[in-house]
Write a structure and sequence with these properties.
It is a single chain. With about 180 residues, the protein is an alpha+beta fold. It folds into 2 domains: about 110 residues, Sufe protein. Chain: A; about 55 residues, Arc Repressor Mutant, subunit A (Orthogonal Bundle), CATH 1.10.10. It is about 50% helix and about 15% strand. Helix 1 packs across helix 3 and helix 5 crosses helix 7.
């Protein structure tokens, strides 16, 4: 298993545990700040073979992908990908898969939280997934006569993660159009 172990230089760590069997999984990931690509991801677990296999599949899904391409798949989509890769999990082992999905989500939440902490201060942070400030978005809107959120996403990645900032970005675009 090449995806196991601890990477000392990580940008985020996420953990989850099963109360049914006492097993845990921990994901660590590193994201290149310029390309916003997951350049390294690994996991540790004391879980069974099902948990190891599910974690390994999740690592392969995420590794070398741009954060914007991952765009927060829902649990059902991740479960489906694991099922396709490994065949269907026995019902009594589904919790092994759920613990892994929860641990991976926890790692991405930790990454976003760390990004937010970097931007404490006077600048308003609009996109916490990619650390894009209001000032940066406004600059791109004005310089490029932006009319659609997807154009901002293409230029800055803002709005390409969890999507919760897309309404704010649209309001900024609308406000800019009224000023023209």
């Amino acid at each position: 298993m090449q995806n196991t172990g601890i990477d000392e230089a990580v940008d985020a760590v996420g953990r989850s545990a099963s109360f049914q069997c006492g097993a845990f999984v921990s994901f660590s990931l590193r994201v290149d700040p310029d390309s916003t690509t997951v350049v390294a991801i690994s996991f540790r677990t004391n879980g069974c073979g099902y948990m190891i296999a599910a974690a390994d599949v999740l690592v392969e899904i995420v590794k070398d992908r741009h954060l914007i391409d991952l765009h927060c798949p829902d649990d059902a989509e991740l479960h489906s990908k694991i099922d396709r890769e490994l065949s269907t999990f026995p019902p009594e082992r589904r919790q092994c898969m759920e613990v892994c999905v929860d641990g991976l989500r926890s790692a991405f939440a930790n990454f976003r939280a760390r990004r937010v902490e970097e931007f404490r201060g006077e600048k308003a942070l609009i996109c916490t997934c990619f650390g894009v400030t209001e000032e940066s978005i406004e600059r791109h809107i004005d310089a490029n006569s932006i009319t659609m959120v997807d154009e901002i996403t293409r230029l800055t990645n803002a709005g390409g993660g969890c999507g919760s900032c897309r309404m704010l970005i649209q309001e900024m675009i609308d406000r800019s159009e009224f000023q023209l």
